[in-house]
Design a protein that fits this description.
This protein has 220 residues and is an all-alpha fold. The chain is 68% helix and 0% strand. The longest helix is centred in the middle third of the chain and has 14 residues, at 81-94. It is elongated.
């Protein structure tokens, strides 16, 4: 992209019209990270919340040396819980191993479920096996969405030793929990995974049954 094109995008990001700014941010998808990130930074504190969310997500995709620090700062300090949740999710996409500690801290110390949910999902994206303890503890959460996130993340980090902790969820009242469980068991090569998936294959919910059938195929 030419310097003139970048200047046009920069001007559009300064537009008083939120739609124009949003379109400019979308246009940055085609711009190399080194050129895109300085422009993304100009709207990180935009008054239009959907634009802020998109900008934060972009920092997880357009990876430069400063993206990590920008996202950690938002995760730790932004007063809006939805922005902190966006930052946690973007850190997962960034896949920087340094994000492990701030994401664990966010999960343990945050009070809003959405931030904790995003942190759990991001820990799965990092695929750091050291996240197993915090994710296993999250299975005891009273928030069903946190159970869903923890189950999925345990599959991402291949926490085979957690299978016994996961098996009780075959009888969860929440069908999405059972879908996440099927997906995860398909990633965990454990002697108890196949019998549990065969049980889920007979689930009355077709999406659970389909997920279990696919997971059995993944186990081979």
């Amino acid at each position: 992209m030419s310097a003139a094109d970048l200047k046009n995008i920069a001007n559009q990001l300064n537009s008083e019209n939120a739609r124009d700014r949003m379109l400019a941010l979308v246009a940055l998808r085609e711009v190399p990270a080194a050129d895109a990130v300085p422009l993304i930074k100009t709207v990180l504190n935009d008054e239009h919340m959907p634009l802020r969310s998109m900008a934060i997500f972009s920092l997880g995709i357009k990876q430069t040396d400063e993206c990590y620090d920008l996202l950690v700062n938002l995760l730790r300090n932004d007063p809006d819980y939805s922005i902190r949740a966006d930052a946690a999710g973007a850190l997962g996409y960034l896949e920087d191993p340094r994000a492990f500690e701030p994401l664990v801290r966010a999960f343990l110390e945050e009070t809003h479920w959405l931030v904790r949910f995003s942190a759990a999902v991001a820990l799965g994206n990092l695929k750091n096996p050291n996240a197993d303890k915090v994710l296993i503890d999250a299975l005891e959460s009273e928030e069903i969405v946190l159970q869903q996130a923890a189950i999925a993340a345990l599959g991402e980090i291949r926490a085979t030793h957690a299978v016994d902790k996961l098996l009780p969820f075959v009888r969860s009242d929440d069908w999405l929990v059972r879908v996440r469980l099927a997906d995860t068991l398909g990633r965990l090569n454990h002697p108890k995974s196949r019998p549990a998936l065969q049980y889920l294959q007979k689930d009355s919910n077709p999406q659970v049954s389909q997920a279990a059938t696919f997971a059995l195929g993944e186990l081979g």
